[in-house]
UniProtKB/TrEMBL annotation:
PANTHER family the record matches: NAD(P)-LINKED OXIDOREDUCTASE SUPERFAMILY PROTEIN, NADH-SPECIFIC METHYLGLYOXAL REDUCTASE-RELATED
Protein's organism: Prauserella flavalba
Name this protein carries in UniProt: Aldo/keto reductase
Cellular-component GO terms for this entry: cytosol
Keyword Oxidoreductase: yes
GO MF annotation terms: oxidoreductase activity
Amino acid sequence: MRYRPLGQTGLRVSELFLGTMAFGKPVPESDCREMLDAFADAGGNAIDTAVVYRGGESETILGELLRGRRDRFVLGTKYALSRDATDVNASGNHRKNLRLSLETSLRRLRTDYLDVYWVHVWDLRTPAEEILRSLDDAVRAGKVLHLGISDTPAWWVSRANQLAESRGWTPFSAVQVPYNLLWRDVERELLPMAEALGLSVTTWNPLAGGVLSGRYLDGGTGGGRRDPATLTERDHTAARVVRDVARELSATPSQVAIAWLLARSPSVLPILGPRTPAQLKDALGAAGVELPAEAVERLTGAVPFERGFPADFLKGLDI
């Protein structure tokens, strides 16, 4: 496993993150422990969860599994989505929800600090000043070391970090986005912004709901979350190219799909979201897959994608 700095901080994180959205029923705690142990044995040190995952079970299980070794991991959780559907203030980015969510997460995770605290999603209404000042207060209190933001427009993140710099507050060091061979929207604004500002980019759903693992090819039902009837020819085309490259490299399709993400940019850090130890073992193998430049080009060109205006327009200018 290789390591990269988290944004412009000195914190080093493994190039693959362990996503624990599946930790909790129906996944038994024994499987969760096996996955965490396998991740650590492979050199992984970065863990991603959220206050709402599995109704809080993900954090509670992690808190138990990390006993005696918590400081060896870069632990991050997220807030913003609703913790309680009966309370209108149990969701959003505002100071009250931030404080209560943070205290809930610290208690469940059995720790007195988080390495990374993430805004799960911009709520479209809380002023940036309130969010940043509240997060900075958590950093100054020693409860949080670094900050990240997920699923938020590039313009908002760049404005927020400029505001943080001007006020002497803690800036965001990373963004979290969906990214895979089929979902490349982040290449339009978010990825270029992150590279320009020195932010890490943790990416969720690297296998596009299992499509890129090849489980739906040749009439396969997949046994996953996707209805095979909803898959398009574009989906199948991408999956076939991934499978072909995997066969040539004696790797698995999942490993190739994740390795493609690692090859896209040194800023990109894929989040693995296994539901079983076997899935995790397979995905971890991506760290050992070196894609030849020709393979990267084949995968990138497997399905049509346009960055659109202004990226393609500016690229075509001769000035």
